[in-house]
Write a structure and sequence with these properties.
Length: 204
């Protein structure tokens, strides 16, 4: 896998020099987790949030997924280039690139994704409410979400992972790496408690 540095020369993904490779540690660790788990996305409808360079989504395509890469509009040009140089022509129809800002009206996005991916997208507390809403909109009870986060205190991501997400999702930390600085979380949507209560009441 290759990534594109500002010079637009192609550098190997494994080049850890931060000035040439713009992948985050969170992205690399999520890829490492997929490798460790021998993950397959074959036949899965996948969406990646905050794709950046696209490294995680690119791996998901190579592992069989139909991937929608998303990010803010100004990121998309570089991402498209990275996808074009890393995805073989016979898999191009397994990729889609869309602008998706978490504050956007999401009604044009479906809610039937099998998998949602996000690496290093939990770092700015002002975006936590809209990120949470985005995850809620795009997911259903069969969706599996993988998020990797840098848990340095300055990121305050504990508020998101320990307080906000567990109200709506079952959350499990499934992997740690990078001197335990990067945590990978696996989430599934909780059933609506009020609805469950109503169903139980009717059953009684
Ligand atoms: C630290 S980068 C991580 C990029 C990539 N996932 C990786 O790990 O290499 C965070 C990404 O989230 C995107 N992002 C931040 N706030 C966003 C928002 N409100 N809506 C959509 N994307 C956002 C940024 O544009 C950026 O690409």
């Amino acid at each position: 896998i290759y990534v594109v540095p500002p010079s637009r020369q192609v550098h190997p993904f494994l080049n850890k020099e931060p000035k040439t490779a713009h992948n985050t540690l969170g992205g690399l660790v999520l890829c490492e987790y997929f490798e460790k788990e021998k993950m397959s996305f074959t036949g899965k409808k996948v969406i990646e949030l905050g794709s950046g360079t696209g490294i995680v989504g690119i791996l998901a395509v190579l592992l069989g997924g139909n991937v929608t890469f998303t990010d803010q509009t100004f990121i998309l040009k570089k991402m498209k280039y990275n996808i074009s140089v890393n995805i073989p022509p016979w898999l191009t129809n397994h990729t889609k690139v869309c602008a998706l800002s978490w504050d956007d009206d999401l009604s044009c996005f479906p809610t039937d994704y099998d998998v949602i991916l996000g690496s290093d997208i939990v770092y700015s507390s002002s975006s936590y409410p809209s990120l949470l809403q985005t995850l809620q909109h795009l997911s259903n009870h069969s969706t599996t979400i993988y998020i990797s986060s840098d848990v340095r205190p300055v990121n305050e991501c504990n508020v998101f992972h320990a307080e906000m997400l567990p109200k709506h999702f079952h959350c499990e930390r499934v992997h740690q790496s990078g001197n335990n600085r990067i945590h990978v979380y696996k989430l599934t949507k909780k059933h609506n408690c009020k609805l469950q209560g109503a169903v139980l009441a009717i059953g009684l």
